[in-house]
C-alpha cells in the first residue's frame, strides 16, 4: 500500500497522513491515532529512507554505556525491551561504549555535532546529573531511565525504589529481624540513594538503630555480593536478613549463606530486587526467592514509547512516570531465628 492509497482510504490529504505518521505536533492526537491504527490494520509501512528525507530525522536513538560493568544482564534486558519496540518503528539503536565520565560527555557532544541520532536514552542517573544538563544545552531530546534534580523539566520513567525498599524492610522487621543488611547499588546513583532512604525510614519508624557495617554499595555482581555478604556474616551479632539489590546480588549472598553453613529462609532471610530475568526465575530457585518485582524489559519498552512521544512533540514536563513495585513473598523470607 502506498501513502496515496492510505490517504484516500482515510479521506485525508497525503500531507496530513504523512505528518500524523511522523509525529508532527500540529496534527491532533485523535487524527494521529486514527491514522496509526488504520495504517497498522491495512499493513502500511512507510519507506524508511523517504521518511528520513521528509522529516530530517536520522532514524536512530543513542545509548552510551560506561565500562563493562554496565554491559551486564540488567542492560541486556532493558535493551531487549527498547529495541523490540523501536524496531516496529524502523528506528535503530546506536550503542557507544566509553571508559569514563569525560569520554561519555564527549560522546554526547559528538552525537550532537554529527546529528546521527534523534534522541538519547540516559540511564543510571545521579542525584544531580551533569549529563542531563549537557543534553539540554546541546538541545538533544532525551528520556531518562530514573530521576535527577537539575532544576529543569526533563522526561523520565522511574520505579518507586524508596517505597519498595521501605516495604521490604518493614516486612522483615515484622518478622522479628533487627539486624538487616542492605546490599545496595553504587553510591550516588539516584536509585541507590532512594533505596537507602526507604531502608532507613523503615528502621527509624520501628526505632531500630542503623548500623553502617550492615550496608554496602557496589555494582550488582555475584562475586562482589558474595564477598560483602561473607564479611557481614562474620560480624557478631551477624545479620539475620539481607536485602539484595538485584537477583545477581542475591546469588552471591546465597552462596555466602551456604558457605557459612546456614540455611536460607530459616537461619537467614533474604528479599531481592527481581528484574524478572527470563533465565533467573525467583519461583524456580530453592528455596524460592522473595522479591520486590519490576520488569526492566517492560521499562525498556516504555522508555522507547516515551521517546516517540517526545519526538512527536509532547512537552517533556508531561512525560513523567513513577511505577509501583510489587512485593512478592516466597520461601526465602521467614521469621527471625530465636
Concise account of the structure shown:
The chain is an alpha/beta fold. The chain contains 12 helices and 12 strands. The strands form 2 sheets. A 6-stranded parallel β-sheet has the order 2-1-3-4-5-11, sandwiched between helices. A 6-stranded mixed β-sheet has the order 7-6-8-9-10-12, sandwiched between helices.
Number of strands: 12
Q: Say what the CATH topology of the largest domain is.
A: Rossmann fold
Name of the top-level CATH class of the largest domain: Alpha Beta
The DSSP helix count reads 12
Structural class of the helices, strands and pairings?
Answer: alpha/beta
Outline type = elongated
Measured between the Cα atoms of the first and last residue, the distance is: 72 Å
- Poorly predicted regions are none
Beta-strand portion reads 15-25%
* CATH superfamily heading of the largest domain: Response regulator
**Proportion of residues in helical segments:** 40-55%
Secondary-structure element sequence? HHHHEHEHEHEEHEHEHEHEEHEE
- Please tell me how large the radius of gyration is: 23 Å
CATH architecture of the largest domain: 3-Layer(aba) Sandwich
**In what order do the strands lie side by side in the largest sheet?**
2-1-3-4-5-11
| Total discrete domains | 3
Look at the structure and give the mean pLDDT. 89
Q: Major β-sheet, in short?
A: 6 strands, parallel
Structural commentary:
The chain is an alpha/beta fold and 338 residues long. The protein folds into 3 domains: 3-55, lambda repressor-like DNA-binding domains (434 Repressor (Amino-terminal Domain), Orthogonal Bundle); 60-159 and 296-323, 3-Layer(aba) Sandwich (Rossmann fold), CATH 3.40.50.2300; 161-295, Rossmann fold, CATH 3.40.50. It is 43% helix and 17% strand. The chain contains 12 helices and 12 strands. A 6-stranded parallel sheet has the order 2-1-3-4-5-11, sandwiched between helices. The protein has a 6-stranded mixed sheet with strand order 7-6-8-9-10-12, sandwiched between helices. The model has no long low-confidence stretch (mean pLDDT 89).
